[in-house]
Amino acid sequence: MSEESEPLIRVVQGDPTAEELAALTAVVSAKAAEASSAASAGSGGPRPSTWSAYWRTARAPMRAGPGGWRASALPRS
Predict the structure, then answer these.
(1) Cα–Cα distance list, 26 to 35, 73, 75 (Å)
(2) 36 neighbors 46 (Cβ within 8 angstroms)
(3) Distance of CA 53 to the CA centre of its chain
């Protein structure tokens, strides 16, 4: 078609190389694809971080007996 459309990306300042423009285009298109797939999946937003999950704060009860205080600080697997 002979009709020109607005460019999707416009450089306002600087003189980027072809490689820099290609990298920018790849990042922008990947983010757009990620957003559209999340919207089509109906996820309702990003998943919450597991760092704030309840099970990370819940610990096993402390055991009474010899060495119990020491065992309370040991990592559990």
Answers:
(1) 14, 47, 43
(2) no
(3) 16
Q: What is the pLDDT of residues 1-50, one digit of tens each?
A: 456 788 777 889 999 999 999 999 999 999 988 887 766 665 566 677 77
- CA distance linking residue 40 with residue 27, whole number of Å: 20
pTM: 0.43
39, amino acid identity: A
Listed by start position, the domains of the chain span 18-72
Alpha helices in 1-77 (DSSP H): 18-41, 54-57, 68-71
Residue 47 three-state SS: coil
